């Protein structure tokens, strides 16, 4: 089985970071707590660019990601952040065979770069 991952980069509108981070953390917590197919969901802040946030998400497969998109915490995140994001870039990744370091870490190669997938 190849794990499915996303690297999502956001530019957040001025003054919107606290609200965005609250919604992002709720989505991440809901994902890891209530979705058996979600293996990792990191919300990362850029210390150099305070308007930039990245997500690193790992799912068992694409079906697990589609299940994530149907969850109430994801739908709440979309509604809460719709007006807060200036731009978003999504990179879709899959684990490369033989590069898994541990259950929580995967080696990845880009499957489709810069795809609007979220």
| Radius of gyration from the alpha-carbon trace, in angstroms | 14 Å
CATH topology: Alpha-Beta Plaits
- Report the CATH C-level class: Alpha Beta
Domain unit count: 1
Structural class, by secondary structure, is alpha+beta
User: Largest sheet at a glance?
Assistant: 5 strands, antiparallel
Low-pLDDT windows of residues = 100-118
Instruction: Give the helix proportion (percent range).
Output: 25-40%
Number of strands: 5
Short précis:
With 118 residues, this protein is of the alpha+beta class. It has one domain (4-112): Alpha-Beta Plaits (2-Layer Sandwich), CATH 3.30.70.100.
What is the topology?
Elements: E1 4-12, H1 17-34, E2 38-45, E3 52-59, H2 62-69, H3 72-81, E4 85-95, E5 108-112
Antiparallel strand pairs: 1-3, 1-4, 2-3, 4-5
Helix pairs in contact: 1-3
Kindly list the characteristics that best describe this protein:
31% helix, 118 residues, alpha+beta, Alpha-Beta Plaits, 5-stranded antiparallel β-sheet, disordered C terminus, single chain
Textual characterization of the structure:
With 118 residues, the protein is α+β, with helices and mostly antiparallel strands. The protein has helices at residues 17-34, 62-69, 72-81; strands spanning 4-12, 38-45, 52-59, 85-95, 108-112. The protein has three helices and five strands; from the N terminus they run E-H-E-E-H-H-E-E. Helix 1 runs antiparallel to helix 3 (72-81). The model is unreliable at 100-118 (pLDDT under 50).
